[in-house]
Amino acid sequence: MRTSGPDTAAQSMDNKSFAAIAALAKEEAGLILPEGKMTMVQSRLRKRLLETGQPTYETYCKFVCSNEGTAERRLMISALTTNVSHFFRESHHFDMLRTKVVPTLLQKARDGQRIRIWSAGCSSGQEPYSISMCLHSAAPELVSRDILILGTDIDPAILEKAEAACYSEQQISGIPEDMRKKYLEHANGGQFRVNADIRRLVRFRELNLLREWPMKGAFDAIFCRNVVIYFDAATQASLWPRFRQRIANNGWIFLGHSERISDSALHLFEPNGMTAYQAAGSGSSAIRKE
Ligand SMILES: C[S@@+](CC[C@H](N)C(=O)[O-])C[C@H]1O[C@@H](n2cnc3c(N)ncnc32)[C@H](O)[C@@H]1O
């Protein structure tokens, strides 16, 4: 019977190590880990201890905070992020996409302009693929135009799943029946794969929202849902002006059900529906106000 090593250590994260991990998670990714999450953090990092060969949380903590731990920091953040997602989650946003956003997109496309939508914090891909399915079914004319749905996330492991586009029967249950028939194909192991027509509109990139955003041009709509809820108020407040700069005039931003634009940035957005906002004013005036 083993009496030492990671399995035993996994049961005993000390307060100092937890505080150091929490500080690192905030610094690297904006994630807020209150003390009440210590058990969750322990269990999520248990595998990291085993894979790095670190015998205790204390030694793991020292390693991940050191210069040698740079690569491990990315894997630690990947382990600490919450990646829960569903197809057509908070379906009222997809109703709005169809009824309020698509008419503008169609007009833009007919005028020869490009269409760009950003799923920021896209997790395993259900959100950008739901957007693609929604556009395909509501406006087939759009999909042959210059249109792109960008899915970004800080977590490279979850982006691999998003690229694979394979989901279990339970995971696809949120997709309306008619779309399941049109947009899914059978894959190995009883799974279902989002088909090429839907995948073709979507590109995935690794991106930390706290760092620079290399994308050029403005988005017609940004879905950033159930992401900023893991950040503190100051980090959230710092993001809204940056999002505003990236939204086309009259473009949209959709947030998760428990998320709101901070008061300090409300002048940049007009509330328009449940956790939905339209960019207020022109982009340049929004940039000046920042
Ligand atoms: C709960 S999921 C939300 C997925 C999807 N937007 C939805 O609503 O179903 C949150 C995602 O945000 C990502 N995330 C957390 N911190 C991030 C950061 N600093 N930059 C980019 N993505 C981040 C996580 O990796 C995770 O995949």
From TrEMBL:
InterPro entries: Bact_Chemotaxis_MeTrfase, Chemotaxis_MeTrfase_CheR, CheR_C, CheR_MeTrfase, CheR_N, CheR_N_sf, SAM-dependent_MTases_sf
EC number(s) from the headed UniProt entry: 2.1.1.80
Gene3D superfamilies: Chemotaxis receptor methyltransferase CheR, N-terminal domain (1.10.155.10), Vaccinia Virus protein VP39 (3.40.50.150)
Molecular function as annotated in GO: protein-glutamate O-methyltransferase activity
Enzyme class: transferase
Pfam families: CheR (PF01739), CheR_N (PF03705)
Keyword Magnesium: no
Entry function: Methylation of the membrane-bound methyl-accepting chemotaxis proteins (MCP) to form gamma-glutamyl methyl ester residues in MCP.
Superkingdom field: Bacteria
Keyword Methyltransferase found: yes
Catalytically driven reaction(s): L-glutamyl-[protein] + S-adenosyl-L-methionine = [protein]-L-glutamate 5-O-methyl ester + S-adenosyl-L-homocysteine
GO annotation, biological process: methylation
Binding residue positions for S-adenosyl-L-methionine: 83, 85, 89, 127, 153, 208-209, 225-226
Keyword annotations from UniProtKB, A to Z: Methyltransferase, S-adenosyl-L-methionine, Transferase
CDD domains: AdoMet_MTases (cd02440)
Name recorded for this polypeptide: Chemotaxis protein methyltransferase
